[in-house]
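Below is how a single chain appears once it has passed through the pipeline. First comes the sequence as given, then the structure the pipeline wrote out for it. We keep one example in the README because the format questions we get most often are answered faster by looking than by reading.
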Amino acid sequence: MPTITVAICARNAQHIIGACLDSVRRQTVAPDEVIVALDDLSDPTAEVARAYGARVIASNATGLYEARNAVLDACTTDYLAFTDADCILVPEWVERAKRVLDEKPDVAAGTGRHPPVGVRNFAAWLHHMWFIVETERTGYTQGIIGGNSYFRTEALRAAGGWLNLPRHSAAEDVYIALALQRAGQRIWFEEGAAVQHNYETRFYGLMRKARMMGKDITVMMRACDFRGGLWRYTLAIPAIAAMFLLGILLCLVNARLGIAVAALPLAITLCFLAARFRSLTVALPRWLARWILIWPYAYGILEGLLSTVPAGAHRPLPNRPETRNAKPESRLRILLVCSHGGHLSEMFQLHEAFDGHDISYFCYDADTTRRLPNAELVPNKPYSPLAFAANVVRVWRHFNWERPGLVVSTGAEIAIPVMLVAKMRRVPFIYIECGAQFTTPSVTGRIAYRVADRFYVQWPELLAAYGPRARYAGSLIDETAPSRK
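Resulting structure:
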């Protein structure tokens, strides 16, 4: 049975680490080892940690990147999990983390909810609203929360561990998520694997954290030569802040022009977050928090651009393994797209045709789809513009990861964002009209008819309703109808 270590990297945490270690002690599945990594063994935290039975090691670190690597070097178990001294684990956290890694061989790392605990004031609320990964639902994800993370030890070592970035302690979780994914690994978000966090309660302390985060994430991306979407997003933050300030200054000259310029970045960021969270209710408080924290964060980004990357810290991210996409010519990566009812049943009728190929799904989240292998499940909100925009982003990310060579859909409206992305990415798209449509085209079918590379109907009566591009090759639901490949 695989073994697991729970590790805490701490400094002068003697007054708070006891509650964290007590929550580790109360786990439904006990970890095989608990490691507390301290910069110096003279730290009073060592005495408290030993009282709880933890193994205390000296990381000799000047920042969190070095401390994480020291723990990785000391780890002897199959899995390695991290939490922070100011966190409280839910009793089943270790059990859920192990279950994810035990049951999902394609997953190398996981994370989960990060709800608040302890003092709740305005600063703590702002700090909590800063976290984006925390809002995810159970399923594959892109990011990791450092204080709520668990890994396959072998995958961490294969990715080279964390950067050798001394005197930096923020964005180490962002780095390891990037490194693992570039190495061909996947990350899982498990809602039930929650770690309660004592968020920063001092406003000045939170401003310092935001500034440090902006600086460290910029230095980290410079050190690993990352120039992807996160780099562009990070550089856009000081530009957006500057545009708002420009609008305020323009108000002194021309009020209408100034208000328009200042309102533009506010509107852009609100729309972006609303699409990201698929809910204006969820997006609005996080939008407000970001506009309060954007100033120290943007200042930190500028500091990171101007500062010197520490000597020896430069290390490019791992290259994605060529074998992930190098398949025999007869073997395809196929993305199957359908909703969760009759459309899914029709897709199952086609499964024999997909034998020997690598399959992934893009479906609505429902009882009928949660057991599908390699599936990305999205909320069932077919008439929400925000959900549609969010699904376009999700599909684009899915294409980046899975690299499908073919997309097949049996409908319904969930297919629309997928067919648009497939068209932009020049991936062949096959659409099969729903068998419930006998003589009248569906709304999704009308759109797919113009976009799909191949368009099939299940009743010959529909051929005239659609036009010359439609094909009839039998029915998936009528056993008496002829069917041919």
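The chain has a mean pLDDT of 90.

See the next section for the split statistics.
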